[in-house]
Fold this sequence. Notes:
Layout: H1 3-14, E1 30-34, E2 42-48, E3 51-62, E4 73-78, H2 95-110, E5 120-122, E6 126-138, H3 143-157, E7 159-164, E8 167-177, E9 185-192, E10 195-198, H4 202-206, E11 210-216, E12 222-228, H5 235-261
Parallel strand pairs: 4-6
Antiparallel strand pairs: 1-2, 2-3, 3-6, 5-6, 7-8, 9-10, 9-11, 11-12
Amino acid sequence: xxxxxxxxxxxxxxxxxxxxxxxxxxxxxxxxxxxxxxxxxxxxxxxxxxxxxxxxxxxxxxxxxxxxxxxxxxxxxxxxxxxxxxxxxxxxxxxxxxxxxxxxxxxxxxxxxxxxxxxxxxxxxxxxxxxxxxxxxxxxxxxxxxxxxxxxxxxxxxxxxxxxxxxxxxxxxxxxxxxxxxxxxxxxxxxxxxxxxxxxxxxxxxxxxxxxxxxxxxxxxxxxxxxxxxxxxxxxxxxxxxxxxxxxxxxxxxxxxxxxxx
Length: 262
């Protein structure tokens, strides 16, 4: 990033404002809608500022892992397409795509959001496999938080598929919900200079020194953390970032619950 632009962002943050006029701890207007993909078992769309993401859930059956013969499988994938941002390129997954998927996956997996034992059809032989696909339609920053929210909303929206002779009847959804037990809200806090911000735009992400993604449960328990950026974080930095993440997770959870209740 151009150093002059980074200095400009830094100077504005020192005065408590950002280039788009928001406060340092303020998210852009957030919209969440579920059931947006007819062919998916569950789906959601999240729009925050100019960032827009859809997430879809597809179920299939397969063989369980040898070390967990009575548990289903969950996997998160993210694809960053050129249509979402001209900086994205076609071809093999970029490091940003892999990291985004892994951080979202970790929050869901470590919190045991899905009761995978309830996805067992026949121990050691057949289990449900849950595929969570996260696709940015337009990227203007904060893919991890917004992709995580989209994934959670889609999981809560998902219905199981009918089985016949051990085979799924795709297109025939039951009234049974996917066994989702909790909602780990991911909040990424960025450090730019001596300033901490949330919900960065794409330009602000280019100026980041360090960032910390914190996945927070309903009772404010932290179930996962992931550090990014080149600069180190002090103990005070981490404590301040975690406190801010917990505070913002409560706001995001309220918006998510309101969307799910519609």
